[in-house]
Structure formats: C-alpha cells, structure tokens
UniProtKB/TrEMBL annotation:
This is Long-chain-fatty-acid--CoA ligase. It comes from Micromonospora mangrovi. The keyword Ligase applies. Pfam families: AMP-binding, AMP-binding_C. It comes from the Bacteria. PROSITE patterns: AMP_BINDING. Keywords: Ligase. Residues 471-546 form the AMP-binding enzyme C-terminal domain. GO terms for molecular function: ligase activity. InterPro entries: AMP-bd_C (IPR025110), AMP-bd_C_sf (IPR045851), AMP-binding_CS (IPR020845), AMP-dep_synth/lig_dom (IPR000873), ANL_N_sf (IPR042099), ATP-dep_AMP-bd_enzyme (IPR050237).
C-alpha cells in the first residue's frame, strides 16, 4: 500500500487502528469454527430469549450442511435464502458456505415477480425460505426444492405455547410469523433427520465465491455482485480494526438491520461472529421489541440507520430506559444528520459515527474515526488497506485537484470480483489496477475526510433500502391510462429519501394518484411503492429522448 504521505487520512485514525489489516487465506467458515473453539459456551444467538451457544451453533451448521448435501447441494451451487432475521437464517448461511456453495440473499418482502427475476438469473435449484413467502418461490426460476422455515420453532417454549392459545391476539401473532407451505420440505424435519457433514468434507477457500448480493450498482438494473470469502472476511477484519475498544467474546450486537442486506450481513453475520459477540436477532425493527430486549440483554454495539437511532433515543429519553450500555454505534445507508448524533450521544453516552460503502465493496470502505476526531456531516476516511481517488467523472484517468469535487474511486481487498454473468457491466465499473467506480461525487479535505456531494447514479435510498427508479417506472407504465413515468428520491425531514413518481397520462385518461399507488403494490415491495404520485403534462427529456430525472426532481422540489 502507499505511504502515509499519499494516504493523509491515516493521521486521523483512532489510536490503535492499523494502516492495513493482515491478509488471510481463511474462509468465512473459519470465522465460525474459530469462535466455537474460543467461546463455545458463550451465547451466539438470542431470539426473543431463546439462546444458542457458539458450540451449539457450530454443531447446527454441520447438521444443516449435511442436510443440504443430501439434497444435492455441492461446491459452486447457488442456494437462495429468502428469510427474515432468525436463527435459521444464520445456520443456513454458514451451512451453505461450509459446502463450498454460494449464498444468494433475497428480500422476503419482494413480490413474486421480483423474486422470479433474480431466481432465474442465478439459477439456484435449492431455496431456503420463510414459510409465509414459500408460495412466491415454489416453481420459480430453476428452483426444484424449497425448504420452508417456521420462525415460531426458534422461539422459547413458553412463547411458542402462547401462540397456540385459542385467543384472537395469539392467532394473529402466529399468523404473522408462520403459514402453511404446500409443496415444500420443512426445515425442522430436514435437520432432525440429518447426519452432520463429516469434518473432512472439502472446505471452501478464500478465493471462492461466497455470496451473490443483488444490487442496481450504478445503472439501476439489479444484478448479482460476486463477493468472495476473502472480500467478506477482510471487511469484517477491517471493521474489527476500526473499533479498537471492542472486547472479543464480550460484546452484544443487535441485528435490527436485515441480514439479507449487505450492511446487515457484514456487520451481523460475519463481523459479529468474528469477535465472538452475542447476536440478538429481530425479524424486523420493532421499537417495543428492541426496548424489551435492551432490558433483558443490553446491547453494546449497534449498527443501524438514522431513523432507528432517532426512534430508539427518543423513546429511551422519554421513558427513562437505560441505553448507556451501547458504547459504539455505526450508521450507514443514508446521510446521518448531526442532530441525530447529538440526540443519540446525549442519551447513551456512546459514540455514533457514520460510514460509507456499497454492495460491491462488501460493503464498507470509509468510516468516521471512533474517536473525538470524527467529523459529523462527512462519511469519514478510508478503512485500513483501502485507497481512494477522486477523479473526473467523464475521464476517470484524470485526478481532480485537492478539494475539488469528483467521482470517488475505491481500491482494496473488499472490492468485489464483478457482476454475475455480466462482463460488460463489470467492465464499466472495475478499472485497471483494481479501481472501482462508485458513481458518487465527493470532496476530500486535507485530512482525508470525504463528503458526499451528489450521486451520479440515480438510486433512491429509502429507509436504508435501495430502490431503482426503473423498477418503479416499469410498474407504473403497466397501469391502464399511464403513458410514461419518472421516479425520483425526494429528501425527507428526518434524513434519507422517499420515492415520488411523476406520471403522464394517456390522452383523455384520468387517474386517482392514490389508486395508482395502490395498484403498484401488485408489482413492487412496499418500500418501493411511491409515497406520492404527481400527474404532470409531460416529462423533461434529453435530445435523444431520455427522461431527465434530475429535472423532474428539481421541479417537484420547487413545487413543494
């Protein structure tokens, strides 16, 4: 790597943070086996009070790997996971990897159409899915075997019993967690009958593909980012190095972020295991559930997004709930308002810092120092073993002058291997010498702190999730009476964006904006549905007829 003179940000690192992290030939599977050896009796997973030790988790993974192997899963095969946060998700993730197979994470909130597109693209023959969404997966793509997971089986016995009481509230709670899944195999029965995978079964190597994570990248068309064991393991190591005050085998990490998202996957599935942390799992962010868990098993490390910090801190302050156990908190996926930092730190006494990343970088590349040197409003400085350049977006071979805005390029061991079966798309973003084009316009100050100025890509980030305008627009154009549409991200007061769509109607057509929003729900996950639909006479276009989304956004902002 370059010297400190070429990497001025190293001077801003918190005490104890190295300039580089050691390279490793181990795989992600080794993270779990090492944690089981070092912290076998420690609680690895906590799900509403039901606990699994690291030794038990390691044994469960071996059993699940044996079960999947009997289903025909072998090295290099893709296995689709369509699961919320639950113990079965963690077990399935590591079991697939133990076989040398490839995990493909999917959002269980996706529609059948959205899932079918991705399932067809990667060609997985086996899928492990939440039983409530199993009908959306059975018979889709190349999937031959669907293994259905009943979340209630991971609950503590008393909570499981309570769900079976002949009460309306109990029935509703049970229906929210599980449903019949015809045409599937039951995960619990499959594992009960399984023989653990032999210890001498060939393990994956660091260079093997571990994960396909679907992202729109800089173009908006969802495609699978290929992430190797090395990519993901080194990013976990970079995260560990970034917070020297962490104590291996003593931390408690809250998984309020979805594990199917790159951010939640690395911080919770790999980073947490790498430090022998207890991972408290929540199927979705529920304020009351998180506060209840904080009383029972206080968190010490919390990765989340700004709206979660605001709600938790506000509720803790108003109700007198103690959150001072949280020493470190990392925010990502959207801009972190300084007011949120002030609120969180006043309530917890811990540090809240912002980071930056993308799916193609496993995902973290920059972070604010976990020290008084942090600078709210910036996304921080490059992680250890990471280099950046700021270049002319029209000619990335030309570096911008210091302080001048330009496109951010990133290089480091966490940078992905390319897009699944899309060499042309890969060539657009992976440049010679390993540089990745991020599509983001940034500035860097003399100390190496980076500020995101604008976004070349027109990705919309709402609630920490990526929404690709083309998907929303396609759904709107399908509706009767809609001639054209443009989807944009509009800033909201609490930070982040909301999806807003401008639509042009066919001549003599009329439409109720709320009816259009409702109709979109047949084709889009809930968070992708426009929060507002505005009917306009026409859309601004370039000379070649391309809709100018930036102008659409500016017009909508001016009309607020």
């Amino acid at each position: 790597m370059d010297s400190t003179a070429q990497r001025p940000w190293i001077r801003s690192y918190a005490p104890g943070v190295p300039a580089d992290v050691p390279e490793s030939t181990d795989s992600l599977v080794d993270l779990l086996s090492a944690a089981a050896r070092r912290f076998g009796s420690r609680v690895a997973l906590d799900f509403f009070g039901a606990t699994t030790s690291y030794a038990e988790l390691d044994a469960e993974v071996a059993r699940a790997a044996g079960a999947l192997h009997r289903l025909g899963v072998s090295r290099g095969d893709r296995v689709a996971l369509v699961l919320p946060n639950c113990p079965q998700h963690v077990v399935a993730f590591y079991a697939v990897l133990r076989l040398g197979a490839v995990v493909v994470e999917h959002n269980p909130l996706y529609t059948a159409q959205e899932l079918a597109q991705q399932l067809t693209d990667h060609g997985a023959r086996v899928a492990v899915v939440w039983d409530k969404v199993a009908p959306l997966v059975v018979g889709r793509g190349a999937v031959e075997t669907v293994v259905a997971v009943d979340l209630t089986r991971a609950l503590p016995p008393l909570k499981r019993l309570a769900l079976r009481l002949p009460l309306g509230k109990a029935r509703a709670a049970r229906a929210a967690m599980t449903a019949p899944a015809p045409g599937t195999l039951a995960w619990s029965r499959l594992l009960a009958a399984a023989t653990p995978l032999p210890a001498d079964h060939p393990a994956p190597g660091a260079a093997d593909t571990a994960l396909l994570q679907y992202t729109g990248g800089t173009t908006g068309t969802p495609k699978g980012a290929i992430l190797t064991h090395h990519n993901l393991r080194v990013n976990a190591a970079q995260g560990r190095a970034w917070v020297p005050g962490l104590r291996d085998g003593e931390e408690t990490v809250y998984a309020v972020l979805p594990l199917f998202h790159a951010y939640g996957l690395t911080l919770c599935l790999t980073f947490a295991v790498s430090i022998g942390a207890t991972l408290v799992l929540f199927p979705r962010f529920d304020l009351e559930q998180v506060l209840d868990a904080a009383r029972r098993r206080p968190p010490t490390f919390l990765p989340a997004v700004p709206p979660i910090y605001e709600r938790l801190a506000g509720a803790a302050r108003d109700r007198g709930i103690d959150l001072t156990s949280v020493r470190y908190a990392i925010s990502g996926a959207m801009a972190l308002p300084p007011a949120t930092v002030q609120l969180w730190e006043s309530v917890t006494g811990g540090l809240l810092v912002e980071g930056y990343g993308m799916t193609e970088t496993s995902p973290i590349t920059l972070g604010n120092p976990v020290s008084p040197a942090r600078r709210p409003g910036t996304v921080g400085v490059p992680f250890p073993s990471t280099d950046i350049r700021i270049v002319d977006p029209e000619d990335p071979s030309r570096d911008r002058a210091p302080g001048e805005a330009g496109e951010l390029l990133v290089r480091g061991p966490q940078v992905f291997a390319g897009y699944w079966h899309r060499p042309e798309e890969t060539a657009k973003v992976l440049l010679p010498e390993g540089w990745l084009r991020t599509g983001d316009i940034v500035t860097m100050d003399p100390d190496g702190f980076v500020t995101v100025v604008d976004r070349i890509k027109e990705l919309i980030i709402t609630g920490g999730f990526n929404v690709y305008p083309s998907e929303v627009e396609e759904a709107l154009r399908r509706l009767p009476g809609v001639r054209d549409a443009a989807a944009v991200g509009m800033p909201v007061a609490q930070g982040g964006e909301e999806v807003v769509a401008a639509v042009v109607l066919e001549p003599d057509a009329s439409a109720d904006p709320e009816a259009l929003r409702s109709a979109c729900r047949e084709h889009l996950a809930g968070y992708k549905v426009p929060r507002r639909v505005v009917v306009v006479e026409d859309l601004p276009r370039s000379q070649i007829g391309k809709v100018l989304r930036r102008e659409v956004r500016d017009t909508l902002l001016a009309d607020r």
